Recover the amino acids of this structure.
């Protein structure tokens, strides 16, 4: 990138530098869902067309982008800002879990979908949140199994075992 | 492989050649489940320790090997020998679907788990079998979603959409 920039005119490099400074100055976190946003409340939280009673809990703002690309999910989000990881000294109080519980109460949430990748930290965080919320609302987790286009023969054993365990009745 | 063999002693190459001839002569299909077998009935079909009332339907004998590696599945198998594919002129009658229906009746099968990869042919075959069997027994399909170790951010949109659609309540 540096070598590419050295070949470009100075004005262009100055414009890029200014854009970076502006982005850093203007982009912050949505005060409701902690997604990246230039405004105090992000576009998704403000959209009246979205399902107001479903929350999707993700670890990071990047996961919101990935889920939005599917165009399948119509509810709102809540970004935790990381995962519980005692090895790295990250406990539940460093994440946006308190505000999540508050939102579930206040917004009358009917379903919390936990969309966190499968890993030790991910599973710990999922179980922690599920324990906190399951007396208040329905708590679900995204499915794990064979990816699309995936071949049974090339799937790893843990994925296959999860796919069998998570089998669903065909209706 | 050819270059490697040229370096080995003649006796070893002759032994390998004989082993290949023997394998071709002796390995056939199990008369019950159509898995590869040296005997008329394969080891899995004969094993009394396996769950006699659960059948896992797979496209190919290689899928049996993949599923056995998980050590999670304890039932028996049924190998279709391919997938329904009108483009390649393969209809249901070319596959071992008739014997499958017969087995479900005769063996008093309580659950048929369809473990077929997601693709147009795979989905067609799954729906065809489900329609045939669902009045006779419980028919399930393995889960599709995020693979283990998979990151939300790098998952393709269809996999993510399936993972949301297939979400399960956390108990």
């Amino acid at each position: 990138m540096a070598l590419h920039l050295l070949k470009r005119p100075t004005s262009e490099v100055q414009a890029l530098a200014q854009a970076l400074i502006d982005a850093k100055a203007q982009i912050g976190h949505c005060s409701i869902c902690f997604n990246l946003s230039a405004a105090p409340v992000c576009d998704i939280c403000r959209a009246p067309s979205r399902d107001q009673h479903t929350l999707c809990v993700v670890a990071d703002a990047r996961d919101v982008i990935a889920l939005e690309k599917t165009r399948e999910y119509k509810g709102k989000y809540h970004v935790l800002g990381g995962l519980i990881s005692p090895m790295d000294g990250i406990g539940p109080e460093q994440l946006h879990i308190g505000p999540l519980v508050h939102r579930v109460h206040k917004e009358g949430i009917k379903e919390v979908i936990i969309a966190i990748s499968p890993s030790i930290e991910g599973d710990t965080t999922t179980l922690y949140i599920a324990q906190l919320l399951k007396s208040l609302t329905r708590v679900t987790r995204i499915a794990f199994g064979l990816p699309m286009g995936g071949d049974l023969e090339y799937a790893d054993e843990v994925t296959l075992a999860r796919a069998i365990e998570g089998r669903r009745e065909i209706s």
Observations:
- Chain A touches chain B through 56 residues (CB under 8 Å).
- The mean pLDDT of chain A is 92.
